[in-house]
Amino acid sequence: MIARVFCNDNGFGLSRDFAVVRPILEACGYTVERIAPSRPAKGRADISIHLEHIYPKNLRQSRVDIAIPNVEWCPGTMVTAMRRCQVVCAKTMDAADILSRQGLSPIMTGWTSPDIYRDTRAISG
Known about the structure:
- The protein has 4 helices and 6 strands.
- Strand 5 (87-90), helix 3 and strand 6 (107-108) form a beta-alpha-beta unit.
- The chain is of the alpha/beta class.
- It has a 6-stranded parallel beta sheet.
- It has helices at 13-27, 76-82, 93-101, 121-124, and strands at 2-6, 31-35, 45-51, 62-68, 87-90, 107-108.
- The chain is globular and about 35 Å long.
């Protein structure tokens, strides 16, 4: 089984998001391949996960398309593309509210990526 994750390896949030998704997919028996959203994918996959950017050209290349957008980078064309996904996930309640107002029915995930802005010193002592 192949899981394709469309996301950039930016060394920051998207790299961390991929680090959350990859072991979950591998534990479910998937071979995981990461592809930059701007690159064409070769062949079909069993599942495609679109982190942050959802491009129409990358949809329908697998049996299931899952969108996990960052709503602060979500233009109207991406909302239209998300409507073609079987599942749309929201990382936060705020994101779920924003996506709902766009007419989508997101699933709340309770995302586990580390927050680079959280002051861990305040909770470690």
